[in-house]
Amino acid sequence: MTEKEQKANEVLQDIAKDVKNKLPENMGFAILAYEFGPVEENKERRMLYISNSQREDVILAMTEFIKKQLDDPTLFGKDE
């Protein structure tokens, strides 16, 4: 893990604790952190991920999000 990734991982751990404490009971979350730009520009980079859920549940949620987003890009708001 690079120094940048280690720093990001530490921040993600802090954010995850805060999110977990603020969400209502029985709610899952996943947070992704990544460097901007095409992967072709830096094949060594990795996406960092943290969650309070089982990996299988996160995969299902992410798959649902991607499918819905592809079907209707306005469903989850807009980029700003």
Estimate the global geometry from the Cα principal axes. Answer: globular
Low-confidence stretches: none
Strand element count:
2
Query: Level of helix content?
Result: 40-55%
The separation of the N and C termini measures 30 Å
> Which percent band covers the strand fraction?
5-15%
H/E element order: HEEH
The Cα radius of gyration reads 15 Å
Task: State the strand order across the main sheet.
Answer: 1-2
If you had to describe this structure to a student in words, what would you say it looks like?
With 80 residues, the chain is mainly alpha-helical. The protein has a domain of 50 residues. Helices cover 46% and strands 10% of the residues. It contains 2 helices and 2 strands, in the order αββα. The chain has a two-stranded antiparallel ribbon with strand order 1-2.
